[in-house]
Design goal:
The complex is a heterodimer of chains A (about 160) and B (about 200). By secondary structure, chain A is an alpha/beta fold. Chain A contains seven helices and six strands, in the order H-E-H-E-H-E-H-H-E-H-E-H-E. In chain B, strands 1, 2, 3, 4, 5, 8 and 9 form a seven-stranded parallel sheet that branches. Chain B has a two-stranded antiparallel ribbon with strand order 6-7. In chain B, a hairpin with a 5-residue loop joins strand 6 and strand 7 (about 115). The chains are: A alpha/beta (about 160), B alpha/beta (about 200).
Chain lengths: ~160, ~200
């Protein structure tokens, strides 16, 4: 489990101004830390398809947003993501809950399709399994920003 | 009861062209198709190609990023209906500098005029907006009333929604994407992040 305080501190350190999110039961533990952050505005959307263009508008307007959704939300919002990342070429970074990753022999199709879908989109990602891996999120974020490419950090989850 | 639609799209948009000062104008779909020929302002963002329903969240993001700017999003009714939840997101944001204009023609115009689900339902867009918590929501069915009220409703602190009932375009309805969205965004961003300001 990655503490919300560590995530909020890490994102603030990366210069994140806004988190646009729909949480799941793992990511949701970060809510209080993100909401009380002095430097991050937490924006709640009603469906993941809103998150990508909202973050794009923030970025066009000079801010540094980041999207947080579960992998199922990424599936749901595929066209919005495609448009923003590839038509508009806005290099957004997202933290994505990797549902059921930690459950061995899980039959959850959200787990089954997660990495094949990301590979199909050609979006570079890192897997974050614990707090010890958070430096990998930071370095991946920084390399994606330096290259002006989108990037994802997959958060290993063990529950629905 | 079918909606009464008496305005031509270009006439309805011309009212906005005449009113516009230094507002950010985000257009999508049919409005973008016409706006490209009607306005050449550096704060125009013709959101083409877009994702249907993405215009309002995109405009909200710009409005939150640049709170000193008045941001106007012109969305088709088909796109609007694809992301109705965005009204709640807009309401929760309390972005007083955001105005949503819905081009209500009852059809998916750029695919040839197929009817929306609203063709068999009596749907009140301003009613939905008010119920979602937007403080401003009005509808106009004819050009004279739209011309008469546009400057007043435009100037009200939002977030606001204006529902314009227009006649569908039945010829030359297809939307051709202008070249290089990333290049247009770069120019738009340069204009956006300059010093001039607008207030709703």
């Amino acid at each position: 489990m990655i503490p919300g305080s560590l995530i909020a501190q890490t994102l603030a350190g990366l210069g994140t101004t806004h988190v646009v999110w729909i949480p799941d039961s793992t990511l949701g533990d970060w809510e209080q830390a993100l909401e009380t952050s002095d430097s991050i505005d937490l924006l709640r959307v009603c469906r993941e398809g809103e998150a990508w263009p909202l973050a794009a508008g923030l970025q066009i307007g000079g801010q540094s947003p980041l999207v947080i959704v579960q992998i199922t939300g990424l599936f749901e919002s595929g066209d919005a993501m495609r448009n923003v990342l590839f038509d508009l070429r806005i290099p957004l970074f997202a933290i994505v809950g990797y549902r059921s990753f930690l459950i061995e022999n899980s039959r959850d199709t959200a787990k089954q399709f997660a990495e094949p879908i990301l590979n199909a989109w050609g979006i570079p990602y890192v897997l974050i399994q614990s707090a010890d891996d958070v430096p990998n999120l930071v370095s991946h974020y920084q390399s994606c920003q330096a290259a002006s490419t989108p990037g994802f950090a997959l958060i290993a989850e063990g529950k629905m | 009861m079918p909606a009464r639609r008496a305005m031509k799209l270009t006439d309805a948009l011309q009212v906005l062209v005449n009113l516009r000062n230094d507002q950010v104008i985000v257009t999508t779909m049919g409005s973008a198709r016409e706006w490209i020929h009607m306005s050449h302002h550096p704060l125009d963002l013709n959101y083409v190609p877009s994702t249907m329903g993405g215009g309002i969240p995109l405009g909200l993001g710009i409005a939150l990023a640049q709170p000193q700017r008045h941001v106007v999003v012109i969305s088709g009714d088909g796109s609007f209906l694809m992301n109705l939840g965005a009204l709640v997101t807009v309401s929760a944001s309390a972005a007083i500098n955001l105005t949503i204009i819905v081009i209500n023609n009852g059809v998916y115009e750029i695919t040839g005029g197929q009817k929306l689900a609203t063709s068999k339902a009596d749907v009140n867009f301003p009613g939905i907006a008010l119920a979602a918590g937007l403080p401003v929501a009005e509808t106009y069915e004819d050009l004279d009333s739209w011309r008469t009220n546009a400057s007043r409703v435009w100037a009200q602190p939002g977030p606001g929604l204006i529902d314009l009932k227009v006649v569908p375009v039945t010829t030359d309805y297809s939307l051709v994407a202008p070249p290089s969205m990333p290049d247009r965004i770069a120019k738009f961003r340069a204009a956006l992040c300059g010093n001039s300001q607008s207030q709703p």
